[in-house]
């Protein structure tokens, strides 16, 4: 590599690294999802998703408007962009909640958490991306650590019951949906279509579809405490709000392979927060999982950490 080529590629590398760090903010926000959802547990799932995505729409629109832009103009997107945006955001949550209803939460969660590994693998199909051994190794280590965490939460074992196959299929569908959404949003970024500001529009339609599901399937229940209301508000501002915007920016402009593997930090950090706030019991398995997930994340982030 010549000196001129090195100089030309350094800005691109730095820009990609910054975007990856922005995407990592989403992973940190998703780590707060379980503690906040626990505090707002009295609110039915689709009602919670509807209110959270409505707040996400308001957050994204305010951000767009603060830059002197008109949020409404981002509603004009190609049909394919709408299908991907709404299908990814609403489809993932719909399938995930269906999986939790039709299969034991332990197995459903484990199957759903295949999505980081699938992002790493699917990214190899993108133009200009190259999947390396440390990306796969890091993702597999993260999956192993997550499996330990979820097995611990379900009493340490798994059961395969044919009656739960529809739930397993829904959980797998949610994993494939989110991985496909993330990778295809990267592809749209490569061709300059449906910018991150358009996510606000997708959030609004997702909120409306979630509201319809709530009205059809659930009874409306609002929080009965200040903590519950605060948790519901923070969900819409953070893990089910701003997280989708920084994640979108990260997967479009950063290292999607590293972000996929780093995503396994979310269930680990979430479990640690539950333990810290007394919402879950401590266990040695947590620290074994910590070593696997942290080590896998560092391995998958080799491109970001190594020095030129």
UniProtKB/TrEMBL annotation:
TM spans (from-to): 21-42, 48-66, 78-98, 110-126, 133-153, 165-184, 196-217, 229-247, 259-279, 285-305
Protein's UniProt keywords contain Repeat: no
GO cellular component: membrane
Protein known as: EamA family transporter
Domain (EamA) ranges: 20-150, 166-300
SUPFAM superfamilies (UniProt xref): Multidrug resistance efflux transporter EmrE
Entry keyword set: Membrane, Transmembrane, Transmembrane helix
Matches recorded under InterPro entries: EamA_dom (IPR000620), EmrE-like (IPR037185)
Domain of life: Bacteria
